Amino acid sequence: MARPINADVPATAPGKAPKKNPPPKPPAPKKPKRQRKPVPAALKAVAALFGLAIVFIVAAIVGGGGGGESTETPAPVGAPPEAPAGQTPDQLGYPGFATANTTRVGGGDAASNAAAVALAAYPSGAPSRQPDAVVLVDAADWRSAIAAAVLMAPPLGAPPLIGEADGVPAPTEEALDALDPTGGKDSKGTRVFAVGAAAAPSGLQTKRVGRGGGTAAAAEIAALRDHLLGAPPSHIVVAPAADPAFAMPAAGWAARSGDPILFADEDTLPQPTAAVLRRHHHTPVFVLGPSSAISSEVVRRIAKIVDDVHRVSGEDPASNAIAFARYADGGFGWNVNDPGHGFVVARSDEPLDAVAAAALSAAGAWGPLLLSDSADTLPAALRGYLLDVKPGYTTDPTRAFYNHVWVIGNQEAISVNEQAEIDEEAALAKIGGEG
To answer: I want to staple 323 with a disulfide (CB 3.0 to 4.6 A). Which of 127, 184, 314, 422 is the partner?
Structure first.
């Protein structure tokens, strides 16, 4: 049955005195622990706006939330907070521009964006809201970084952060201090999963995976996922090893579903990928990307190993991401073909931003990653898709479904004018009736 545009619902109709403190006792010896630093003000701002987005999308009960019809350049969200020494709020991913229907995580690089998103997913310092672990990926290896997004999936929920071979970037270090991962049962005591060549931080229990990087690292991450969850995956995604723009949408899905990501070349099926497929030969496989990225011959080779294989694709990166957002086959796929959802938009030439944003697909709005190939203009396919799922109402906007879009990257990646265009396509519209 088609989902209604307007989900109208009827309206619904002495403490005790404190005790005196006992004499102080000598403190018991404690295990050494990494000192927890305050959450940077700029990252706190991202967390606050993340909560606002949840109100827009999930609750959908606050009047006026989807409204604006204006296409004017949105105004800044007040004065940005004071940033830590040596960094501007923009470098930390502070959302310098927000509209009724969009929120920007506008860091100057993927490390800043990933740090901001991780703090948005885990905004509270309460022990119950700290992650068991974080994932530190290598900025020089987009394949293993995208594959590592699977560790964000429940129950582990380890947000990805961006590392480097020769040290930990400052935004990542700040996020690590603020998140203070606990090393709980879901991570089997590990506080940091260091992927590939990413340098491990000091003072945190760390497990290294995929030391060689690339396609082989993706296979190792899939094995780690099986070990941590204690169960085989429901599905497997095989993405192009040589076309990052076609592989990017897999990161958000892996974070949302727990389906691991493997890689194939255009004309060859790498041995590490084939080995994982043999181990899970009863698991359905979904090949992401057109035949120009992964050939039909490779799909036939996969079909000789596993019982069930399908392709999900579009001719270009923007169309490919939309095809993945629309796709549904049983329990696989976003199946986002109607209003009332969250979305994430990033540049197709920034594969690490797909990793940085992955936590937004596994918390709050749980939305698919969409791609733009321009800093100034939405691709026609993306504009058409957003119009197709544009929310509307007939009588009461407070009872309607809402869309909300996270914009990843600074204005050099996606301009304010393009963000305004996204806002217009995502805005709630009155489509008829009286009211």
So the answer is: 314
422 located within any domain: yes
Nearest CA-CA partner of 419 in 71, 91, 117: 71
Q: Cβ(370)–Cβ(321) under 8 Å?
A: yes
Q: Helices 249-257 and 317-326 meet at what angle, rounded to 10?
A: 20
**Do residues 358 and 252 make contact, with C-beta atoms less than 8 angstroms apart?**
yes
Asked if residues 300 and 309 have their Cβ atoms less than 8 Å apart, the reply is no
**Number of independent structural domains in the chain:** 1
Q: Is residue 24 part of a domain?
A: no
CA dist., res. 383 & res. 425, Å (int): 7
**Radius of gyration of the chain from its Cα atoms, rounded to whole angstroms:** 22
- Gap between the Cα atoms of 250 and 260, Å rounded: 9
Please indicate, yes or no, if residue 30 is contained in any of the structural domains: no
Per the structure block, which two tokens stand in for 381?
A: 């396919």
Q: Kindly state whether residue 257 falls inside one of the protein's structural domains.
A: yes
* 77 vs 52: CA distance, rounded Å: 13
d(CA 319, CA 246): 10
Burial label, 237 (beta-carbon count in 10 A; 0-12, 13-18, 19+): buried
- The token pair at 197 is 């060549």
Answer for the pair 261, 149: CB distance below 8 angstroms, yes or no.
yes
pLDDT in tens for each of the 435 residues of the chain? 344 333 433 333 334 444 444 444 454 444 444 444 444 554 555 445 444 444 333 343 333 333 333 333 333 333 344 444 454 444 444 445 788 999 999 999 999 999 999 999 998 777 778 999 999 999 999 999 999 999 999 999 999 999 999 999 999 999 999 999 999 999 999 999 999 999 999 889 999 999 999 999 999 999 999 999 999 999 999 999 999 999 999 999 999 999 999 999 999 999 999 999 999 999 999 999 999 999 999 999 999 999 999 999 999 999 999 999 999 999 999 999 999 999 999 999 999 999 999 999 998 778 999 999 999 999 999 999 999 999 998 998 988 899 999 999 999 999 999 999 999 999 999 987 554
Map residue 378 onto helix, strand or coil.
Answer: coil
